[in-house]
Amino acid sequence: MTDLTLVARLLKVVEHDVVPLTRAGVEQGNKLFGAAILRREDRSLVVAATNAETANPLWHGEVHAIKLFHELPPAGRPDPGDCLFLATHEPCSLCLSALAWSGFADAAYLFSHADSADAFAIPHDIAILKAVYAVPDPDREAPAPGRDLYNRSSRFLSTADLAAAVAASQDPEAIATVARLRATYDALSATYQQSKGAAGIPLP
Ligand SMILES: [Zn+2]
Questions:
Q1: Which of 15, 64, 164, 192 has a 20 to 30 Å separation from 86 between CA atoms?
Q2: Which domains does the chain have, with CATH numbers?
Q3: How far is the CA of 3 from the centre of ligand 1 (A)?
C-alpha cells in the first residue's frame, strides 16, 4: 500500500476507534484483535469491532465486525465491494475465509502473523494454517519449507501490510504512530496474558 494518506487514516481508526473497544474487551478476558470497516469513497467509518470470544469463539475481531456490519439497517449499509477492511492483526484462516465469503476484497492489517506469535504470544494463526491447510498435496511434492501460508493476493482477497508500508515510506509521523500503537498493543497484550485461560476460550 503506497497511499500514505490512506495509511495514516487507517492508523487513526485503529488508535481512536478500535483501541478503546479492545481495551474494554481485553478487560473482560477477550483477545486484543480488532477490526473496522470503512467506506472506500470517503474513508468514513462504518463499523468498528473487537474480539468477543468470551461470548462466542467465532467472534474474532474481523468476524465480529462483519456481524455488526450486517446488523446495520440495509439502507445505511454500503456494499462490501465499496468498503475497505481494516484488521489490527493479519487475519487468521477463519477470518480470511470470512472476508472472502462476505465480499470484503481489500483488507489491510497492522501487525503480522509473526507479530501475533512472537510479540503477542498468540501462535494459533500460524499453527492452524500449518496444521490444517499447509498439507502436502499427495499428487505433488511436499510444500517448500518457509513458503507463504496463504496467498496474500488472490481473486477473492488481497491483504496489505500497513507496518511494512509505513517502514518503506520513512514518514516520521506514520513511524511514530506505529511505534505508539505497538506500545499500546504491548500493554493490552500484557493485560490479556495475565488473565489468559480464565475466560474459558478454547484457544486462549
Ligand atoms: Zn481470526
A1: 192
A2: 4-133+154-195 (3.40.140.10)
A3: 26
